[in-house]
Write a structure and sequence with these properties.
Strand content of chain B: under 5%
Distance between the termini of chain B: 28 Å
Largest sheet of chain A: 2 strands, antiparallel
Number of helices of chain A: 8
Helix content of chain B: over 70%
Structural class of chain B: mainly alpha
Strand order of the largest sheet of chain B: 1-2
Largest sheet of chain B: 2 strands, antiparallel
Radius of gyration of chain B: 23 Å
Strand content of chain A: under 5%
Strand order of the largest sheet of chain A: 1-2
Distance between the termini of chain A: 31 Å
CATH class of chain A: Mainly Alpha
Number of domains of chain A: 1
Structural class of chain A: mainly alpha
Shape of chain A: globular
CATH topology of chain A: Arp2/3 complex 21 kDa subunit ARPC3
Shape of chain B: flat
Helix content of chain A: over 70%
Number of helices of chain B: 9
Number of strands of chain A: 2
CATH architecture of chain A: Orthogonal Bundle
Order of helices and strands of chain B: HHHHEEHHHHH
Oligomer: heterodimer
Order of helices and strands of chain A: HHEEHHHHHH
Radius of gyration of chain A: 17 Å
Chain lengths: 207, 241
């Protein structure tokens, strides 16, 4: 779920860079206050690599195949590191694979970053008490929030000459087409967090 | 241009990134349909001159499909002025114009980015980003992600193949299996990261991996100037049409 180059007005693309830059600055400042942040870099990098590699795999969810977004899981496992990890992933996808966009990198960071942080806060607030419910909410909820941000940005950025009602209908169709991804991400995050809670609880912010 | 693309020593990754960003934003600012052929011509020329046509065309496939989708869908769903009708299907002028503009900008930008950046190794690109002021932590994340990407992708692919060979489920029923595989990869990644951190400390890692930054050469400055002038010319032409 990426905004491609050429779709959004240049003013919005620049505003996206400003927004993502602010989000990255806040995240980096929070990371700096963690005890021994350098020691966390290799762990964050390794997990980022796994998420990046897993998101490139097409998973069959009939009637189509989906690429997992994994923003919720990324948020739960990486916390504040999720924002730099997402921005790095988006940059590498744009320059290595031509996915997403270079001008829209900031906006794409705003589509994926906040849902990851919401998942992180949700897990931190209620993950210990209701781990399974929170896992599904973090996985599926992150996709739903990202879809709404995506739709809001597209509605704000599309040319005025276009028919607003048709635009909204197309966006609803796009969002409905992502229902399989919403369900798949909820299930994936539930299973992953269950396995990690049993076998490697040290990987989670709290076991 | 071919010479530029094949001479990473002359045209550094940092200068390429600056030119790519400046021109991409210049292209993205175009609002007149009359400028689309100019953008596409520049993108196509850059792609041809990059000397990696086959490689870049393969990576352009996604953008081509997306551009085709914009060209096909927008005229059908949006606009007021009818230009053609076939039974219940009507094509609208405004949608067609918006589709052509978006598709043209998209293809030109992606072609240009691929032409400028694909001759440079991903590690050099990340070093270039670091030299442009990207925080050390993000550059380190990118370096380490690139370093272990192939290994972990291969590991995930082997895991999927092993599950299939053992008669694993397919389709949506395989989702829990994919999740198990992902969890296994995350646990191995954690173990590997502990070894990596020990190795990094032994090599004297403190604040940022060692990424030597060479100053920009006269050729780099010339390219940056040329790219900026081209972007400004595109902007000016677009607004004056």
């Amino acid at each position: 779920m990426h905004l491609p180059d050429g779709l959004m007005p240049v003013e919005m693309a620049l505003a996206g860079y400003a927004g993502s830059g602010l989000l990255a600055a806040i995240s980096l400042s929070r990371i700096k206050h963690l005890p021994d942040p350098s020691a966390l870099v290799p762990r964050a990098a390794m997990l980022t690599t796994v998420f990046f590699a897993a998101s490139l795999v097409a998973i069959p969810v009939p009637p189509t195949t989906v690429h997992l977004m994994l923003a919720g899981l990324l948020g739960v496992m990486l916390g504040w590191f999720a924002i730099p990890a997402i921005l790095v992933g988006l940059f590498l996808q744009a320059v290595l694979f031509g996915h997403g966009g270079l001008t829209t990198l900031g906006l794409n960071g705003l589509i994926l970053g906040p849902p990851a942080l919401l998942a992180f806060w949700l897990w931190r607030a209620a993950g210990r008490r209701w781990p399974d419910v929170v896992a599904v909410c973090a996985g599926s909820g992150a996709v739903v929030v990202a879809l709404f941000i995506f739709a809001a940005l597209v509605l704000a950025g599309m040319p005025v000459a276009l028919d607003a009602r048709a635009e909204q209908t197309a966006l609803w169709a796009f969002m409905l087409a992502h229902v399989p991804l919403v369900l798949a991400e909820g299930l994936i995050v539930l299973v992953v967090l269950r396995v990690l809670r049993r076998t490697a609880p040290q990987l989670l912010p709290h076991g | 241009m071919a010479k530029l693309a094949r001479s990473p020593v002359l045209f550094s990754a940092r200068a390429r990134l600056i030119v790519a960003f400046v021109l991409a934003f210049g292209f993205a600012s175009v609002q007149s349909l009359l400028m689309v052929p100019v953008l596409v011509a520049i993108g196509a020329t850059a792609l041809l001159a990059s000397g990696m046509i086959g490689h870049n065309l393969a990576r352009l496939r996604g953008a081509l499909l997306l551009a085709a989708a914009f060209l096909l869908v927008l005229p059908l769903i949006s606009g007021q002025t009818e230009i053609a009708g076939l039974g219940p299907v009507t094509l609208y002028l405004e949608g067609a114009q918006a589709g052509a503009l978006i598709a043209g900008r998209l293809l030109a930008i992606v072609a240009l980015i691929l032409a400028l950046l694909s001759p440079v190794s991903p590690f050099d690109l990340v070093a270039g980003m670091r030299a442009l002021g990207v925080p050390a932590l993000m550059a380190d994340l990118a370096f380490l992600t690139l370093r272990y990407m192939e290994e972990i992708s291969g590991e995930l692919a082997r895991g999927r193949l092993a599950r299939l060979l053992r008669g694993g489920k397919t389709g949506w029923r395989a989702l829990p299996d994919h999740a198990d595989l992902l969890a296994g990869s995350l646990i191995r990644a954690q173990l590997r990261s502990e070894q990596l951190w020990a190795a990094m400390r032994l090599r004297g890692y403190s604040a940022g991996l060692n990424t030597p930054v060479a100053p920009l050469g006269p050729f780099d400055w010339a390219c940056i100037l040329g790219g900026s002038v081209l972007a400004l010319a595109i902007f000016w032409l677009d607004r004056s049409i």
